[in-house]
Design a protein that fits this description.
Elements: E1 7-10, H1 16-24, E2 29-34, H2 38-50, E3 55-59, H3 65-78, E4 84-86
Parallel strand pairs: 1-2, 1-4, 2-3
């Protein structure tokens, strides 16, 4: 999906669908987040960077308001105001239901 010059935040972008999403957002600079798998997030970031886009990698715990606020402040400061948020993580105590 070609987005042009946009800034996206993709939570849980360290593996699987979460890794595929930032790669599909062609043209967008991306904040890649992880909870436990920093190396997975850095691998995602390398793939996005190889497409010539800027990337921010940051740990995020969506159950902590301060962690979320810190992410948005850091994204705004380093990449600019985000245009798109893809929430690819579940909160604590939630399970995927298909």
């Amino acid at each position: 999906m070609k987005l042009g010059p946009r800034i996206a935040i993709v939570t849980g972008s360290d593996s699987g669908i979460g890794r595929a999403i930032p790669l599909a957002l062609e043209g967008a600079d991306v904040a890649v987040t992880f909870h436990d798998d920093e190396e997975g997030a850095r691998a995602t970031a390398r793939q996005v960077q190889s497409a010539g886009r800027q990337v921010l990698v940051q740990r995020l715990d969506v159950s902590e308001e301060g962690s979320v606020a810190d992410l948005f402040q850091t994204v705004d400061r380093t990449l600019g105001t985000p245009h798109l948020l893809v929430n690819n993580v579940l909160g604590p105590g939630q399970a995927a239901r298909f």
